[in-house]
Structures
1.
Amino acid sequence: MLSGRKRYRCQAAFTLIELLVVIAIIGVLVALLLPAVQKVREAANRMKCGNHLKQIGVALHTYHDAHGFFPPGGITEGFCCGTRSKENWAILILPYIEQKNIYDRYNFNAFNEDPTNDWVRRQPVPIYNCPADIQLNQTLRPESGPGSGLQYMVGSYRAVSGKSLNGWRSFDNAEALNMDQGWRGALHTVWEARGLFPERLTDVSNGDGTSHTLMVGEMTTKTHLSRRTFWAYTYTSYNQSSTIPQSRSLLGDYDQCVAIGGEGGSNPCKRGWGSFHPGGIQFVRCDGSVQLIARSIDMNLFSNLGSIAGNDPIPNWP
Amino acid sequence: MKQLHIALLFVVAIGCGDGRKYVPVSGTVTYKGKPLANASVIFQPIAEDNENPGSGSFGRTDEEGRFTLKRIDGQGEGALAGKHRVSISIITGEDPTRSDAGETLPVNQLPPEAASQVFQVPETGTDQANFDF
C-alpha cells in the first residue's frame, strides 16, 4: 500500500524535463505565430496608409471641382536656392481633409518661411502620416533651403512633380522652365509670372490618361531624416518628388542612395520615393485609385508614369 | 515518401523566389585607353516583356578600372541576366560632407555616351563587362 501511494505521488508531479519540453513547445508555437502577427500588422499599416492616400486623392479632386484646376505642387517666385516659397498642395487641400482650423491660420500673403506661419509649419496632420513610417509627429530642421533653420512637422506623402532624368532638372523648382513641358506632373511648381500654371484634369486625360499618371506617393527615408518629407515646407524637394529612371531612387534610404552614386549625384535621392512596406511604394493616381508599385518596376515605365503628357509608351499597364 | 515530396516542393518554391536570376558580373572601364578609377557604374534593367524586371545593380571602379556589381536592393552580388542600360559617371560639383551639398549643378565629367551604354548580361554571368570610350 505504502509503496503504491508513493508511486502515485511521484507520477502526479512534473519532472524538470517535462517542464522544459512544455516550455519548448510553447516557444516554438510563439515563434511560429509572431511572424504571422507581424505580417498582419504590416498589411493593416499598408491598408491604412493607402487609405490616407485615397483621402488625399479625393481632396485633390474636390479642390479641382472648386477651383477648376489641381492645386500647385508648390508656388515659387524665383530660381533655386535662396528663394523663399509660398503655399503648397498639402496646405491648400487642408479644408478638404477636415483641417480648416490649420488652413485658416496660414498667412497666404507671407512666405512659407516667415515667422507668421510658424504655428502651421509645426502642426501634425494625421492624414499626412503613414502608420508604417518611423518617428512621426515630431518637428525637425530640413536639410537645405531658406527653411533649413526652422522646425517643420514631418509627413509621409509627396506630390509627383513630374518626370526627371537625373533629378537636377525637375518640376519642383523653377528649373521646370528649362524642361520638356510634356514631362510635367499633375502637381508641379507654379510660377505664374513666368508661365508655369497649375494643371487641369482635362490636360491629364488628353495626355497620358488619368490612370497612367501618378499624383501623390509615399516618401520616407530610414537614414538622414532631415531629407524626409515635411508636409508644410514648400521649398523644392521636401513635399514634391520626381519620377527618375534609377532604381536607387526607390530605396527609402537616403545615405545608401547617395553612396551608390550615379547620374545626378544626390539629386535622385532627394527627389526619390520610399516606404517601409515589404511589397513596394503606394501612389494615388489621377483617377483616384491607389496602387502599390513594386521596387522591381521597370524604371523607364515608372519614370513615364510621373508625366501627364509624355506620349511615352506605357504597355499593358493595369 | 509523401512528406518528402511536400518538403521538396517547399524547398523548390522558396529557392525560386520571384524567379529572377542574378548572375555575377564584373569588368573594366577604360577612358581614352587608360583605366578609369572611382567611376560609378550603374546597370538598369531594360524590360522587354515585363513591367517588373527587377532592381538594378551598381559598382565602383578601383585603380585598375575594375568593378564588380552589387544589387541596389542590398540583397547580394551580381546583376540580372538580360539587357541593361549602363550609365558610367564621375560626378563633380557636389561635396557630400556639406549639409547643403547638391544645390550646385552636379556634372558628369565623362562624355555623354558614358551615360547611355547598352549591355547584355549573359545567363551565366560574365567577368568581361568592359566599357571603353
Note: The helical segments of chain B are 2-16.
2.
Amino acid sequence: MHAGTAGLVDALRAAVGRDACLCRPEELFVYECDGLTMHTGRPAAVVLPSDTAAVQRAVRTCRDFGVPFVPRGAGTGLSGGALAPDGGVVIECSRMNRVLELDPANRIAVVQPGVVNADLSKAAAPHGLYYAPDPSSQQACTIGGNVAENSGGPHTLKYGTTTNHVLALELVLPDGERARLGTRAGPAAGYDLVGAVVGSEGTLGIVTEVTVRLEALPEHVETLLLIFRDVVSACRTVGDVIRSGLTPSALEIVDQRTVAAIEDSVYAAGLPRDAGAVLIVELDGPALALGPQVERIREMARSRGATRVDVARDDAERARFWRARKGAFGAMGRLAPDLYVHDAVVPRTRLPEVLEAVCAIGDRYGLKLSNVFHAGDGNLHPNISFDRRDPDELERVVAAGEEILRVCVEAGGVITGEHGIGTEKRDYMGLLFDDADLDAMRRLRDAFNPDGACNPGKIIPTPRFCAESNPKARGYERVPFE
Amino acid sequence: MPTPLQTAGPPHGGFRAEALYPQTLDCVHCGLCLSACPTYVETGRETSSPRGRVYLMRGVAEGRIPLGEVVVEEAYLCLGCRACETACPSGVRFGALLELTRAEIEGRGLRRGLAKRVEAFALTTLLPHPRRLRRLVSLLGIAQRLRLDRLALPFLPARLREVHAQLPPIPSRAERRALPERIPAEGERRGRVQLFVGCVMPELFGAANAATARVLARNGFEVVVPRDQGCCGALQAHAGLDACARKLARANAECFAREDADALVVNSAGCSAAMRQASEWLGAEGAAYADTVRDVAEFLDAVGVRPPGGRIEARVCYDDPCHLVHGQGVRDAPRRLLAQIPGVELVPHADPEACCGAAGIYNLTHPEMARAVLERKLAALRAADPDVIATGNPGCLLQIARGAARAGLRARIVHPIELLDEAYRAGG
Amino acid sequence: MKGRAELEALRAALGARAVRAHTPIEVDGVALGVTVAPADADSLSAALQALSQRRLAAVVRGGGTRLGFGNPPRRADVLLSTERLTGIDVLDAEDGVAQVWAGTPVAALREATRARGWELALDPPGEGSTLGGTLASAATGPRSLGFGPPRDSVLGLSVVLASGTRTRCGGRVVKNVTGYDLAKLYTGSFGTLGVISRAWLRLRPRPERELVLRAPARGLAKTLERGVAWARRPGVRALAIVDAELAARVDPGSRGAEEGLVLIELAGDAPVVERDAERLARELRAEATSERALERVREVQGSTPRPSGMRVRVSALASRLAAALEPLARVGAQLLVYPGQGLVYGFVPLASANDAAAARAALRESARAGDGTGCIEDAPSWAKHGDDVFGASGPELALMRSIKRRFDPEGVLNPGRFAGGL
C-alpha cells in the first residue's frame, strides 16, 4: 500500500465528504476490476463526488499526495479503461447522474457523466427524441463512460458512435482546473478538443458534464431475421446490402456456435439448430421507403441462399429477434465462469475469411469461442468462455486473443472497434502503429496530462528503454502493470 | 497483464460453499444489473450493487476476503428485490445467493442489535403461530381504537416508535374473520383450487383474501381453504433463518398435499415466490408443492376470466411487486386482468418494476434507504396521478399506502383482485 | 524568404522541381514568393525537415481557396503546397472507402467516386479546393446537412509533422477506437499541427433520386422556423435560405423571390423524394429547379463582396437563428442561412475602417445572440484589425497552445494564423 495512505483517506474525506469515500479493504476489493476481469489493480480509495467542484477537490488531493487517479462510470468497460492503478484513487462518477437540461427545440441534452445511457433516451422520449449511440450495455453504462470509450453499438452503422453525438464537454483537467470544450451550437474556435477527448479513455481528464445531440425517433422501423446455411453467405449478403446503397441501421450476425449456445440455454429463441448463421437487419426511416427496402433485402438474401427470411410483424416479434442477438452474451457467459468479449474490426469485404481464421485459432487453442458481431461495420466480437482460475486456460485465451488481432491487422483492420485499448490491448498497439505514430498520440496526452497522473498505464505502451533506464522519466507510468 | 486468480484451489469451506460458490461463477461481471438495483442507484457504490455483492460472496467463498463487517452490511442493505435477476443476462440467481449468504451470517451469529432481535421475535415467535399473531393484532386494534397507542408513544424507545409509525390501521373484526373451509363454484364448474391465505394477510388484508375467494368462485372454481395451513417461510428464508423456513415449508407442503386441486392459488407475491422455490429447501418433496403454486392473477389470466359486469371509472396504475415480476416473471397477467374491467384506464408510470422499499422489516433496519427508495416510487406515481394504485403483495400495499398518505396522494391503494371483485359485485 | 541562399539550400535539399520562385502571393499582408511543392510523402517529409532545421515558417496551401481565412501570419517564409501530392490509391467500391492524396482536387475525387457508385460526403465551396485543404479547414457547403462535417468522412490520416516525422492515425475501417482519435485533432486544425498527406475516407451510398427545389421565402426570419423543421426531415440533404439580393445570384430570373428564396435538395429513395416534393409544393409552394442553383449557393457561400468586403460565419442554436441574423442585417450584410446546420453567412461590403469595425461588432453580437460562435472567413487584412478572426478566447486556448507546442515546437507550420494565434 502507498505510503501515507491514512493521510490520503482523511484528506479525501475532507474533500468529498465521509459518505463519499470508501477505503475498507473489502470495499476496495470489489473495485479491483471493471468489466474485464482478467486485469486487476488495487486502489487505495474510491471517491464518489456529486458535482464538478468535488471532482476538482478530489483531483487536487490526489495531486497533493502524488497518487494517480482514474475516472470510472458504471465499470462495464471491457478493456480495463477504469482499472485502478495500485495505490491510486478511483473517482467514481455514479452520483453525478442528473440530466441537467433537455432542450427539445435545439435537440440537445446536457447531462452529468453518471447518467445511464438508456435513462437519457427515456428522458428524451416524451419529446419524440432519443440518444442514438446504444452500446449493448446501455441499460447500465454511463454517458461519461461512453465519452471515454467513444462507445458504439448495433446501430452505429447508420448513426455513428459517441463522437458523432457529443457537442460539448466540461472536463476537470489532471491538474484540477476546469475546462469547457466545444459549444452547444457546434465546435468552438480552435482545435477539435471535443473530438480529441471523446475516446481518450479517461486519460485526458475527468469529464464532468456532457452536451449531446438528440435524434428524432424514427418514423418507422423494420426488422428482419435471416437464416443462412453458413456464415460466409450471411457475410456476403451484408456486402451486397452495403454495395447496394442501402444504409440499414443495424446489420448483426450470430454465428453457428453462438446459435447452438443460445438454443442450449434458457434464452432459446427458437432458432433452427442447424442454422449456419443468423443475420439481423434493421431499417428505419419513412414507412414509404422501407417496404421496397425490405423486399430488396429479401431478394439479396434469397440469392445468397437464405433458408428463412422473417420480417417482424410487431414490436414483440422485433424484441424476439433481438433476443436472439442479445441472449448470446448470457448464453456464452453460462458456459464458463468468465467471458472474454474480444473486439476487432476488419474491412467488411474480408469478413468471411477472417471469421474462418478466428474460429480456427479458437479451435487450435482448445477454447470455447463463438462470434456475434456488427457485420455492417466489420466489427468482430469473438467471445471466449473461460475460467480465470485455470492459469493455463488464461494463458491460451491471451495467446489466442493476440493471434486474432494479428489476423485482423493483416486483413487491413484494427485492434478495437468500440471497447478501447485500456490495459487490455495496450501492448498490441505496436501491431498497428510505429513509434512515431505512438509518439504523436503521446504528444496529445502530454498536453493534457503531462505527468501521467490521470489514468496511467492505459492506451500507450511505455517505451521499455525509458522505464528501465530512467524510472522517474514518466512519473506515474511505472506505478501499474510493469 | 492478465492476473490469474490467486485461489485456484477448492473454495473456502464453511460458507455454504457447495451451494453458493458455483452459483457465484455464473456472474461474468458485465454490470448490466447495476442500474436495476435500488441500493446502487441510491448510493452509486459498486459495493452496494448486485455485481459487487456477488463479487464479495465469491471473494469470501474463495477465502480472498473475510466474512466481516462490509459483507454483513451489504447482505442486509440489499432489499432482496431481485430486480437484478431480471436484468442479468447470465441467469445469476441472486435471491438464492443472498439467502445463503444471510444464512451463513446468521449461522455464525455475526448480526446483533435491536433490529436483529425485533426481527427474530417477529419471524420465529409471531408469524409461524397464527393464534399469537391474531391475539397481538386484536390487542393492537383495541389500542388503536382507544388511542392508547398514542398515549404510550412518548414512552417508547425510538426504534419502537418507528415500528409504531409503520403500523397500518387494524381492520375490523368482521374483516379479519376466517374464510369458510370450502366455497362452492358459481355457474358452470371449471375446477377446484386451494387458496393460500398467509399469516399476516388474514389479519391485515382479510378483505383481499375474501375478494380472492369470491373472484375464484365467480369464475367457476371451487375454493378450498385448508384450516391448518401456516406461514410460508419466505421472510424467515430471506432473513437467513433457513431452518425455521424449511420447517414451515414442510408443514405447508404436507397440508396442501392432502387435497387434490388444479392449483394452489396465492395472492401474496412474496409468498408465492418463496413457495415456488420449495424444492430447493425440501428436495423432491417440495417439488410437487412448488409446481402447483400460482399467483392469483397469473392463474386467472391463464384460465380466462368471465367478463365483469360492473364498471369502475378509474385511471389505474399497476405497480409490480418485486417478487412477482422479478421473482416469478409475472408482468402482463395482472395488467391484462385489470384492463378487462369496463371503465378502467391503465396508466403507465415511470418506474413500475422498481422496489418500493417495503422488503419485510427493511423499514425498521434501514429507515433512510427505505425512505429514499420509496421516494422514487412516489415521485413516479405522483407524476402519473392515478385514481387507484394496484399492487399484489401485502408488504407493498402497506408501504405504498403509508407513503401515499404521507405524500398526500389522492389514489386509493388496492390489491388488483379487489378491483376485479368490485367490478363483479357492481355487475350483480 | 530570408534570402537567395536559403532558396538555393532548399533546392539542393529537395530538388529543383520541388522549389519554385514566383510572383509573390500575398497572405494577409505577407508576400510569399517561393513555393515548396513536394512530389511525394518522402519529399514532404524532407521539406519539413529542411524548413524546420532552417527555422523557416511555411504557409500550407492546398487549392488556395481559403488563404484569406486566418489571422495574419506571425512569420512566413514559403508556401508549402500539396499540389503534386495527388491521386487516388484505393477506391474500394465493395466497401465504400477510398485512400486519397491530399492534393487531389475535390471535384475530381467527386467524379471518380460517383463513377464507382459512391458519393464523396464533402462539398466545400471554392473552385480548385483540394481534399487536404478541405479537411485541414473543415470546410463545409450546403450539403453538410446530409453529409455531416468533414470529420465524419475521415477514417484515417497520414500526417507529416513539423519535424518531418511521418505518422499515421486511424485506419481504413469504418469503426475504430484504436488509440487517441488524432484524426479529429488534425481535421480543422488549419495545418498548424502537421501536413495531411493522405486520407482514408468513408464514402456514402449514392441516393436513388436527387431533386433540387426552390421556394419563395417570406422574409428570412419568418422562413427560419419552417426551414429548421424541414431541414430535420430525413432525406433532406441541403436546405439554404438566401435573402432577396442573393436570390438573384442563386436563381437568376426567378420570380417570387422578392423576399428571399429557399433552396432544398432532397436525396433518397424515389417514393420518399416524390412524396416530400409534393408536400413542399403544398407547404412552401416549392417547385423543381436545377442542381446548378445549389452549386451557385455554394459559390455565393465562398464569395466575398467586391471590391472590398468581409465574409463572416456564425454558428448558432436553431432556436436563436432569427436573433443571430439581426445584428448582421443592421450592418447591411447579405445573408445566407443553413438552418439545419445552424449556420449564418453574412457578406458585408466595406468602404472604410469604420465599416469594418461595425461589421466586426455585428459579428460578435450575432454570435452572442445565437448562443454560438462567429468567425471572419475572409476580409482584407486591414479590416481584420488584430481581432482574432476565429473569435477564440477563454482558458481552453492554453490547452491548445500546449498541443501546438508539442506538435510544432519550432513554429514551422502556419504560425500565428489559427485561432488565438496558434
Note: Chain B touches chain A at residues 1-5, 7-8, 25-26, 28-36, 40, 43-47, 51-52, 55-56, 59, 64-66, 68-71, 87-91 (CB under 8 Å).
